[in-house]
Write a structure and sequence with these properties.
globular; two-stranded antiparallel sheet; 13 helices; 2 domains; alpha+beta; disordered N terminus; Beta-lactamase
Length: 428
């Protein structure tokens, strides 16, 4: 062998070794497997592909991305329709979606991380971190109209916020007039020109919808948790989540505000008309369109509804949860914290969906028959305002991520069919 050929072989070896290394900013993928390798049918999963393609063809959805993992392996993924129908831009697996209330799961995990670090207890009163909550009040409706404002019977705890039993809605309760006067309505914060902590301080002075620990009231609770995280950690919520969850899990496409370099990957928002067909909303509404996620002041990090993400990123987060808090050798939470988060905490408090309860950031299935859809006891999940949805089924070792952008969604039945067509493909 000549010296020249020897040098060329060395260069080729070094180059091949370099190319085999993971790129520093590339998202790490869940390993793939054939459905049959984990007890599912590829032929039966094809029914789901046909149905989803049909929603896009019939103009009931712009498009979306579905990913299904079982036994830690990605066994089905389908990107369908368009991320922008008007320009015929195809939906891709790395399209970026506004995930709204799916942010709540990450914020809730952030709280549990701080508990594991000894920086808080979920039994702590919120006022320990946000003193303005020391003297909460409640609006009590009066017969014939109006309401009285009374003192809260006890202080709100972090656990109340995690379970949505703090009595705090989205500003539409008995004292809606006071919340409107304070400029706090709706769940959208991306366009606010103030840190979330300042908004939450104003919330504390407003009458809540119910007494702490007495009712399930869905609302700003997780936004308040985001401020608790900031006070307990000394870091802004975006930094804490990035350091403790996003970077360790290689969720490199999950952001509160979209980097300029990724703006072309953001899926367009559509709305359902009364006839069930969709129309573009991206250019009509600051809140539900492209909005402040691109052009906002980048100051308000909403722990309740602020994140954007991709299906591969969110799948990694959920697989970590299914694994008992660990993924690819990186531990985010202890197994016992995951167990605590994914059981019902409501006890005698009624929940809005029969057969389900609510844990620390997730809905939880308690009774399959009462719920009436294919599922398992112990399944947990949630969704987002833009019609995204996810669930984790520990019994079946199943993770499902479904991202689309449709608000309002009208009477579309895609999520129900998604669930049915995934479970009908399980053979073992």
């Amino acid at each position: 062998m000549t010296v020249k050929k020897y040098h060329l072989l060395i260069i080729a070896f070094i180059l091949s070794a370099f190319l085999a290394l993971p790129l520093p900013h590339a998202s790490q993928a869940i390993p793939k497997a054939a459905p049959e390798a984990v007890g599912m049918s590829a032929e039966r999963l094809a029914r789901l592909t046909n149905v989803l393609d049909g929603y896009a063809a019939d103009e009931r959805l712009g498009g979306g991305v579905v990913m299904v993992a079982r036994n830690g392996k990605l066994i089905y993924e389908h990107s369908f329709g368009h991320s922008d129908k008007e320009t015929a831009k195809a939906m891709k697996r790395d399209s970026i979606f506004r995930i709204a209330s799916q942010t709540k799961a990450l914020t809730s995990v952030g709280i549990m991380i701080l508990q594991e670090e000894g920086k808080l207890l979920i039994s702590d009163p919120v006022s320990k971190y946000i003193p303005e909550f020391a003297n909460s009040t409640v609006a009590v409706p009066k017969e014939g109209g109006g309401y009285d404002v009374v003192k809260a019977k006890r202080q709100i705890t972090i656990r109340d916020l995690l379970t949505h039993t703090a009595g705090i809605g989205y500003g539409g309760g008995p004292a809606a007039d006071k919340w409107k006067e304070a400029g706090i309505t709706g769940w959208y914060f991306a366009d606010r020109d103030e840190p979330i902590a300042e908004t939450v301080k104003r919330m504390a002075a407003l009458p809540m919808d119910a007494q702490p620990g007495e009712r399930f009231v869905y609302g700003y609770a997780t936004d308040i948790l985001g401020v608790v995280i900031e006070k307990a950690s000394g870091k802004t919520l975006d930094v804490l989540l990035r350091e403790k969850i996003l970077e360790p899990l290689k969720m490199n496409d999950t952001h509160f505000y979209l980097p300029e370099s990724k703006k072309d990957r953001l899926a367009t928002v559509y709305s359902a008309r009364t006839d069930g067909k969709i129309e573009r909303t991206a250019d009509k509404s600051e809140m539900i369109g492209q909005g402040g996620y691109l052009t906002g002041p980048r100051k308000s990090f909403s722990g309740g509804a602020g994140l954007l993400s991709t299906a591969p990123d969110y799948l990694r987060f959920l697989q970590m949860m299914l694994n008992g808090g660990e993924l690819d050798g990186v531990r985010i939470l202890s197994r016992k914290s995951v167990e605590l988060m994914t059981v019902d905490h409501l006890r005698s408090i009624p929940y809005s969906s029969e057969g389900q309860g609510f844990g620390l950031g997730f809905s939880v299935t308690k009774d399959i028959g009462a719920r009436g859809v294919p599922s398992s006891v112990g399944e947990y999940g949630w969704g987002g305002a833009y019609h995204s949805n996810y669930w984790v089924d520990p019994k079946e070792k199943l993770v499902v991520v479904y991202f689309t952008q449709l608000i309002p969604s009208g009477n579309i039945d895609d999520v129900g069919k998604l669930r049915t067509l995934i479970y009908q493909a399980i053979e073992q």
